[in-house]
Amino acid sequence: MFLYIVLFLVVLWMGYLTFLFIKLKKVTINNKTNSNGEIKIGLAKFNPFGNVGSNQSFCMALLMDNKLGIILTSLHGRNGTRVYARQIDLEQSKKEKLSEEEKEAIEKALKVSEK
């Protein structure tokens, strides 16, 4: 029974992420920006608990050409794993507070686009 609940939550989560990407794509089309649909990915692994454990937590930035995207943050601990998603617009992100790990993931995604 527990496995079915977990599978349902995973499918629900993937549907939500798909919804976010479709919404971002529509915003791109409505703003008439030049986007070729390429998504850049940056990953930053980290340990949120200092010297206990290892780097099993991560931040993943998924950015589109016009600097719109989402950041997924997973915090892994002994009692469970929590996953958070947030929509980001790099042109307005100076107003928002980003963690160091989120900034690192964004920088890595932007470096991928420079290559």
What would you say about this model in short?
With 115 residues, the chain is of the alpha+beta class. It contains two helices and four strands, in the order αββββα.
Fold and architecture overview:
The protein has 115 residues and is of the alpha+beta class. It has one domain. The protein is 38% helix and 30% strand. It is built from 2 helices and 4 strands, in the order αββββα.
What structural class do helix, strand and pairing data support?
Answer: alpha+beta
Count the DSSP helices. Answer: 2
Strand order of the largest sheet: 1-2-3-4
Span between N and C termini? Answer: 47 Å
Integer count of domains: 1
Number of strands: 4
Question: If you compute it from the alpha carbons, what radius of gyration comes out, rounded to the nearest whole angstrom?
Answer: 16 Å
Shape: flat
* Major pleated sheet: 4 strands, antiparallel
Report the β-strand fraction as a percent range.
Answer: 25-35%
What does the average pLDDT come to? 78
Low-confidence stretches: none
Q: Percentage of helical residues? A: 25-40%
Helix/strand order, N-terminal first: HEEEEH
Question: What key phrases describe this protein's structure?
Answer:
alpha+beta, 2 helices, single chain, 4-stranded antiparallel β-sheet, 115 residues
Set down the secondary structure blueprint:
Blueprint (H helix, E strand, L loop, with lengths): L1 H29 L9 E7 L10 E7 L4 E10 L2 E10 L10 H15 L1
Antiparallel strand pairs: 1-2, 2-3, 3-4
